[in-house]
C-alpha cells in the first residue's frame, strides 16, 4: 500500500493548527550505522592475541536501528556506536574516536533519540539529566545557556561546537539550538591539555547535524503554553547526478512564543545548511553554516532584598514589558576537512568564523518603598559584538614500538576574537506595585538611555598540543601536553583607563590510565591541569594572574557483556587557584587574584538500551564546592558556593510498545529531577534554597498502526514540571523562578 505524500498527510490535520491544538518540536532519532576509525576493546583483544588491528577498524556495535544519521569523523565529528540513549565512542575527550570505556575521564553523551523523546528546547534542557551538571541554577532564564559542571561555571568558556571552542562575551554568548544537533558530549574535569582555556569543571561539545548518504525528510509542528507556536524541518541526502560525491542537509526552525514572565518573548528563527563533498573514500569536506535570530526578555530575575527578611525572595518580576527585549543575531560558516593518507595516518582541519550581535534592553528594581506601594527602578542598554575565527589542525598516526601500540595525535589551533561593547544607563519612573499585588507593568514609557561608555578587546590564542594513547597489554596510558600563548588588547572608549596589551603563557597537561580488568570492566585514574587568563587590573595596576586549576579523578566504567548497558562511577577533587576576590587592602574598590576554591564529589551514571524501544537514564551526583582561601573576606572560607545543590538525582525512561503488543504504536516515558538544598548567597548565615523535585512526562503515538500509509507520522505530547511545582533558586543574592508546568504537543511527519 502506497504511503500518502507528506503534504497530503500534513494537510489532513491542518485543522488542529487552526484550533490551537496541533503541534511540533525537535526530531525523532536520526542516527545510522556509520563505520569510523576507533581504538576498540575488541581490537585490543586482537592485539593481546598477536594480531595487529588496522587504524580503520570499525567500532563494534555501531549499528543504530533508529534511522538516518550523519556521517561523522574524529576531531569534532560526534559520538559513535549510538544505540538509543547509549554511545560507545566519543572524540571529545581525546580528539580520537576512543571508546568511552577506554577514556581516562568522565564522559556522557546525549543522543539525538534522547533529545527527541524529551523534546528539549534549550541546551540547559538537553543536559538536565546528566550527572555533575547544575542546569537550573538560574531558574527559567531563556537569555543564556547558563550552567555549572562540578560546581564551576561553564557558560562563557566551556561550550564547544564540532570540536572548536565558542568564545563568548558578557552578553554576546552564542546560542545553541538543540534541533540543529546530532548529539552532545559532556566531558567532566579540566580539558586544557587538548583544548586550552577553559573551566576546571569541564566542557560541553555539541555536534551539528551533517549531510547523510541516505535521503530523508521530516517536518515538526508544535503548540505549547503561553501562545507557543513552532515549526521545524530537516532535509538531507545525496545530491543527484554527483555519483554520491555530494550530499546535503538543510535544517530550519521558526518559533513565536510568550513566557510566564510578564511580556516576555521567546522567539527564534534558525536556518542551518550543510554540504559534504567526498571525492574519494579517503577525503571529505563538510561545510557547515547557520543563521539564528532570537528575542527573549532582558531580565529573568525576581526582586530580592537580603537586608530585609520580608523580601528575601518574592514573585515580583524585576523587568518591565515596556523596555526589556534582548535580541541576539548570530551567524557562522565553517568546515571540517579530513584526508586519510593511509589506514594509520589521518589529517584533519576544522575551521569556523562566527559573529554574534547582542542588544540587551533591561529594567531592574533597585529598592521598594517602606509602604510597599512603589519600586524605584533603573534601566540600561548594552550592545555587544563578537567576531571569532577558530582553526584546529590535527595529525593522527598509529604505530607500534615493540609491545606498545600508540595512537599519537598532534595539533596546532588558533583563536582570534574581537569584541566591542557600548552601554548606557538611566533612572526611570518607579513601578507602582500596590503592596506587591498588582504591579502596573508596561503602563509607563521608559526611555532608551544614550551610550555613555564602552570599549573593545582583542584576544588571540595559539596552542600546540600532543597526545599519546599507549597500550601495553591491558594497560592504556594517555599522556597529553599543551602549550598556550594568549595576548589581550583592551581599549576603553571613555579614555578613563589607558589601553593595555598583556600576554600569558601556560603549559597544561593530563596523565591518565585505564586498565582492562576484563573487556567490559575498566577502572581508570587521571590527573589534569587547566588555566585561563582573567581580564582587569589589581590595586597596583598590574594585570590579574591567570586562574589555574588541577584535578585528581578516579573511577570505574562498566558495560554489561552482550548488552548496551553502561555504568560509570567517578570521584574527583578539583582545586582552582588565583580566583578573583575582594582586595584585602581595598575590598570596595579593587579585586585581587588571591582566592581559592575546592570542589570534591562523586558521580554515578547508568545509561541503557534494554532492548527494542526501551531506554533508561539514571544518575546521582554529590558536589561539595567551597571557598578555601579568601584573605579579603576570611569569614567566607569554608562556606559552600551559593546556588549549587550538593546532591542531585535524575532518572528518565521511555518505552515503545512492540508489534506483538495490542498497544503497538504507543510510547510512554517519564523522568524525575531532584536537586538538594544549597546556600542562597555567598555570605555567612545566608538562608538556603529549598530542595526541589520535578517530574517530566512524554506520550507519543505512531499512526502507522492506524494506516500503513501514515508510516512516519507521529503525535507526541511532552510535559515538563508535570505537577506545576513552584520554586525559586537563588545564587549570589539574586533569585530566579523556576519554569511552571509547560506542555508541548507535537505533530511530526517523517519520510
From TrEMBL:
Ranges for domain TonB-dependent receptor plug: 100-203
Keyword Transferase: no
Signal sequence residues: 1-24
Keywords assigned: Cell outer membrane, Ion transport, Iron, Iron transport, Membrane, Receptor, Signal, TonB box, Transmembrane, Transmembrane beta strand, Transport
Location of this chain's protein in the cell: Cell outer membrane
Keyword DNA damage: no
Entries under Pfam families matching the protein: Plug, TonB_dep_Rec_b-barrel
Domain called TonB-dependent receptor-like beta-barrel: residue spans: 277-722
CDD domains: ligand_gated_channel
Span list, region Disordered: 46-81
InterPro entries: Beta-barrel_TonB, Beta-barrel_TonB_sf, Plug_dom, Plug_dom_sf, TonB-dep_rcpt-like, TonB_sidphr_rcpt
Bilayer topology term: Multi-pass membrane protein
Gene3D superfamilies in UniProt: TonB-dependent receptor, beta-barrel domain, TonB-dependent receptor, plug domain
Cited SUPFAM superfamilies: Porins
Biased composition (Gly residues): 72-81
Family: Belongs to the TonB-dependent receptor family.
NCBIfam families reported in the protein's UniProt record: TonB-siderophor
Entry protein name: TonB-dependent siderophore receptor
UniProt source species: Methylorubrum zatmanii
Biological classification of the source: Bacteria, Pseudomonadati, Pseudomonadota, Alphaproteobacteria, Hyphomicrobiales
Amino acid at each position: 500500500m502506497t504511503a500518502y505524500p507528506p503534504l497530503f498527510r500534513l494537510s489532513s490535520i491542518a485543522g488542529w493548527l487552526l484550533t490551537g491544538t496541533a503541534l511540533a518540536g525537535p526530531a525523532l532519532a536520526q542516527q545510522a550505522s556509520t563505520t569510523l576509525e576507533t581504538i576498540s576493546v575488541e581490537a585490543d583483544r586482537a592485539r593481546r592475541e598477536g594480531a595487529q588491528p588496522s587504524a580503520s577498524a570499525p567500532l563494534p556495535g555501531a549499528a543504530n536501528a533508529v534511522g538516518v544519521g550523519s556521517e561523522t569523523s574524529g576531531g569534532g565529528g560526534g559520538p559513535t556506536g549510538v544505540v538509543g540513549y547509549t554511545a560507545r565512542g566519543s572524540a571529545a575527550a581525546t580528539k580520537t574516536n576512543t571508546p568511552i570505556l577506554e577514556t581516562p575521564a568522565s564522559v556522557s553523551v546525549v543522543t539525538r533519540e534522547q533529545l527527541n523523546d524529551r523534546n528539549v528546547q534549550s541546551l540547559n534542557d538537553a543536559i538536565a539529566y546528566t550527572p555533575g551538571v547544575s542546569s537550573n541554577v538560574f531558574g527559567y532564564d531563556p537569555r543564556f545557556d547558563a550552567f555549572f559542571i562540578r560546581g564551576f561555571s561553564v557558560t562563557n568558556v566551556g561550550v564547544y561546537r564540532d570540536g572548536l571552542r565558542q568564545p563568548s562575551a558578557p552578553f554576546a554568548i552564542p546560542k545553541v539550538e538543540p534541533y540543529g544537533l546530532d548529539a552532545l558530549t559532556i566531558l567532566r574535569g579540566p580539558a586544557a591539555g587538548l583544548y586550552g582555556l577553559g573551566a576546571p569543571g569541564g566542557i560541553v561539545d555539541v555536534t551539528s547535524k551533517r549531510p547523510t548518504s541516505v535521503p530523508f525528510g521530516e517536518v515538526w509542528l508544535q503548540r505549547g503554553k503561553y501562545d507557543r507556536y513552532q515549526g521545524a524541518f530537516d532535509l538531507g541526502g545525496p545530491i543527484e547526478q554527483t555519483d554520491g560525491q555530494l550530499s546535503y542537509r538543510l535544517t530550519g526552525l521558526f518559533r513565536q512564543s510568550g513566557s510566564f514572565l510578564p511580556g516576555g518573548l521567546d522567539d527564534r528563527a534558525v536556518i542551518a545548511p550543510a554540504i559534504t563533498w567526498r571525492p574519494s573514500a579517503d577525503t571529505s569536506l563538510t561545510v557547515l553554516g547557520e543563521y539564528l535570530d532570537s528575542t527573549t526578555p532582558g531580565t529573568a530575575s525576581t526582586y530580592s532584598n537580603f537586608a530585609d527578611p520580608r523580601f528575601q525572595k518574592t514573585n515580583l518580576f524585576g523587568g518591565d514589558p515596556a523596555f526589556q527585549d534582548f535580541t541576539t543575531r548570530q551567524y557562522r560558516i565553517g568546515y571540517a576537512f579530513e584526508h586519510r593518507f593511509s589506514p594509520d595516518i589521518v589529517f584533519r582541519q576544522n575551521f569556523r568564523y562566527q559573529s554574534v550581535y547582542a542588544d540587551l534592553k533591561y529594567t531592574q528594581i533597585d529598592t521598594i518603598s517602606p509602604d510597599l506601594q512603589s519600586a524605584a527602578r533603573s534601566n540600561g542598554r548594552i550592545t555587544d559584538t563578537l567576531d571569532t575565527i577558530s582553526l584546529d589542525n590535527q595529525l593522527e598516526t598509529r604505530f607500534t614500538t615493540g609491545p606498545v601500540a600508540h595512537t599519537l595525535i598532534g595539533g596546532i589551533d588558533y583563536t582570534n576574537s574581537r569584541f566591542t561593547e557600548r552601554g548606557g544607563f538611566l533612572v526611570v519612573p518607579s513601578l507602582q506595585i500596590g503592596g506587591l499585588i498588582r504591579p502596573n507593568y508596561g503602563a509607563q514609557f521608559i526611555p532608551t538611555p544614550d551610550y555613555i561608555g564602552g570599549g573593545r578587546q582583542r584576544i588571540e590564542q595559539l596552542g600546540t598540543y600532543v597526545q599519546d594513547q599507549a597500550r601495553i597489554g591491558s594497560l592504556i596510558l594517555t599522556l597529553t601536553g599543551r602549550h598556550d600563548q594568549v595576548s589581550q588588547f583592551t581599549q576603553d572608549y571613555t579614555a578613563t583607563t589607558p589601553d593595555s596589551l598583556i600576554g600569558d603563557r601556560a603549559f597544561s597537561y593530563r596523565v591518565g590510565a585505564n586498565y582492562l580488568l576484563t573487556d567490559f570492566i575498566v577502572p581508570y585514574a587521571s590527573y589534569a591541569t587547566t588555566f585561563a587568563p582573567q581580564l582587569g587590573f589589581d590595586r597596583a595596576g598590574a594585570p590579574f594572574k591567570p586562574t589555574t586549576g588541577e584535578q585528581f579523578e578516579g573511577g570505574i566504567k562498566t558495560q554489561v557483556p552482550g548488552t548496551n548497558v553502561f555504568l560509570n562511577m567517578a570521584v574527583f577533587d578539583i582545586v582552582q587557584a588565583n580566583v578573583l576576590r575582594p582586595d584585602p587592602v581595598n575590598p570596595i574598590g579593587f579585586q585581587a587574584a588571591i582566592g581559592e576554591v575546592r570542589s570534591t564529589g562523586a558521580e554515578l551514571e547508568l545509561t541503557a538500551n534494554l532492548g527494542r524501544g526501551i531506554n533508561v537514564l539514571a544518575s546521582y551526583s554529590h558536589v561539595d564546592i567551597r571557598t578555601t582561601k579568601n584573605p579579603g573576606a576570611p569569614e567566607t572560607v569554608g562556606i559552600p558556593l551559593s546556588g549549587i545543590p550538593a546532591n542531585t538525582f535524575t532518572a528518565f525512561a521511555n518505552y515503545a510498545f512492540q508489534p506483538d503488543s495490542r498497544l503497538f504504536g504507543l510510547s510512554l516515558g517519564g523522568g524525575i529531577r531532584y536537586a538538594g538544598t544549597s546556600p542562597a548567597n555567598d555570605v555567612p548565615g545566608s538562608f538556603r534554597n529549598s530542595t526541589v523535585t520535578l517530574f517530566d512526562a512524554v506520550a507519543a503515538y505512531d499512526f502507522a498502526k492506524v494506516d500503513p500509509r501514515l508510516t512516519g507520522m507521529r503525535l507526541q505530547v511532552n510535559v515538563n514540571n508535570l505537577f506545576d511545582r513552584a520554586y525559586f533558586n537563588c545564587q549570589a543574592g539574586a533569585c530566579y523562578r523556576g519554569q511552571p508546568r509547560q506542555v508541548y504537543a507535537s505533530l511530526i511527519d517523517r519520510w
